[in-house]
Design brief:
Blueprint: H1 19-32, H2 43-49, E1 53-57, E2 66-69, E3 76-80, H3 86-103, H4 112-126, H5 129-132, H6 142-152, H7 156-165, H8 171-183, H9 202-212, H10 217-224, H11 228-234
Parallel strand pairs: 1-3
Antiparallel strand pairs: 2-3
Helix pairs in contact: 1-4, 3-4, 7-8
């Protein structure tokens, strides 16, 4: 496994964390990981390359898209495989990264405040203000927003929120935008599909390397103490896109 390389910007209990602090934290992580300016090419691969385990499985719970557990040796980010949207999944990955960076030390997550902070972190991580602000339209230019969706691989909804947060779009225009999304049914199914969600490969690659040392997959299952069905579910190949991770 790659060494864990996760910068922490822990939030103390009772500490007020402002939007500027969250923007700075997201920028610090991008700098720490040497992420070039502009869109993040593959969020899941970026997490894996820095030692964070990412898995996908079918959550089958409507309100649960993802979660993370900050284990003592290395964190695990679990993404729902039954949502199927690349933009939404990328935001989920960045959201859970926000929890690990901001809240992983004290483990206090799940309330409205920490969820809002993780959302702000994800938006800032995926769409840095200095890069995307000049590109965001002030008016409801849907072709322009669709072009930005294709470039940044984020949803129209995320782009609208970012435009309002960065002061590009007025409150009135923002409200009209959400009414349009509702009327056109875009809140449930946006136009401009981006393809399959990003696929984790780190665990699978680690097991492939393990098998070259003489330990079979069956041996691994026996040693793990976990049900075989669970292991095979976590290593599912039902998502076709599988980028390689360089060790």
């Amino acid at each position: 496994m790659p060494d864990l390389n996760l910068p922490r910007v822990p939030v103390d209990e009772g500490q007020t964390l402002y939007s500027a602090d969250i923007e700075q934290a997201a920028a610090q992580v991008r700098d720490w990981w040497n992420v070039p300016r502009g869109p993040v090419q593959d969020v899941v691969r970026l997490l894996e390359m820095n030692g964070i385990i990412v898995v996908r499985f079918r959550v089958s719970i409507e309100k649960v898209d993802a979660f993370c557990v900050d284990f003592p040796d290395r964190p695990v980010v679990a993404l729902g495989a039954d949502k199927g949207l690349r933009d939404r999944s990328r935001f989920d990955s960045a959201h859970e990264l926000g929890h690990l960076v901001l809240h992983g030390v004290n483990g206090r997550i799940g309330d409205k405040v920490t969820e809002s902070q993780a959302h702000e972190f994800a938006a800032a991580f995926l769409m840095p203000a200095e890069d995307i602000k000049p590109e965001l339209p002030e008016r409801l230019d849907w072709p322009a927003f669709l072009r930005l969706k294709t470039k940044w691989h984020v949803s129209l909804a995320a782009l609208l929120v970012r435009a309002k947060t960065l002061g590009v779009m007025s409150e009135h225009t923002y409200a009209q935008a959400w009414k349009t999304l509702s009327v056109r049914g875009w809140r449930k199914a946006e136009p401009g599909p981006l393809g399959n969600p990003e696929a984790p490969v780190l665990l699978q690659r680690a097991l492939e390397l393990m098998e070259t040392t003489g330990t079979s997959f069956a041996d691994f299952i026996n040693r793990s103490g976990l049900p075989e069905a669970d292991i095979r579910n976590l290593l599912s190949r039902d998502i076709s896109e599988r980028p390689r991770v360089e060790f």
